[in-house]
Amino acid sequence: MLKDSVAFSGFSVDDQAAAQDFYESVLGIEVKDNGMGLELHVTGGTPVFVYEKADHIPATFTVLNFQVDDIDQAVDELSAKGISFEMYENMYQDNKGVTRGKAEGNGPDIAWFKDPAGNIFSILSE
User: Fold this and answer.
1) Are both 30 and 88 inside the same structural domain?
2) Which of 24, 49, 113, 116 could form a disulfide with 10 if both were Cys (CB 3.0 to 4.6 A apart)?
3) 4, 122, 116: which is closest to 50 by C-alpha?
4) The pTM is what?
C-alpha cells in the first residue's frame, strides 16, 4: 500500500528560529520555512521536516545522519564553528569524539553532536 509513497522524516525542536539559524549558518544546509515548519534540503532525498513543539523533548537516539567523505576534516570544520562532539560510554571514541569502525571492520567512522534543541545528529564516513 505505501511502497510507492513519497516518505520523509521529521523531528521537533523547541525554538524554530534558533534551529533554522544553526542549520543554515553552522551546518550550511538549505532551509525553507513552509509555514508549518522547516524543510531541510539535503542531497540525496526528500526534505527533512522540522517543526516547533512547545513540549519538545530531544530524542535519545540519532535523528539525522550526514555521510561525509573525510570525517576528520568534517569534525575539524564543525569544531571550528563551535560544535562539541558527544562522548559515549563504551563507544571507543578517540580524542575528537570519533568511533573508528572502519579500521576494525566494524561499521563506519562516526561522531555525534547535538543541535540547539538537543537532537542528536551524526557525521559518518563509510
Assistant:
1) no
2) 49
3) 116
4) 0.92
For the chain, report the end-to-end CA distance as a whole number of angstroms: 33
Cell reading at 16:
524554530
Burial of 5 (0-12, 13-18, 19+ CB in 10 A): exposed
pLDDT in tens, 75-126: 999 999 999 999 999 888 999 999 998 888 888 999 999 999 999 999 999 8
3-state helix, strand, coil in the chain (%, to 5): 20, 30, 50
Q: Which amino acid, residue 22? A: F
What amino acid occupies position 100?
R
Structurally, how many domains does the chain consist of?
2
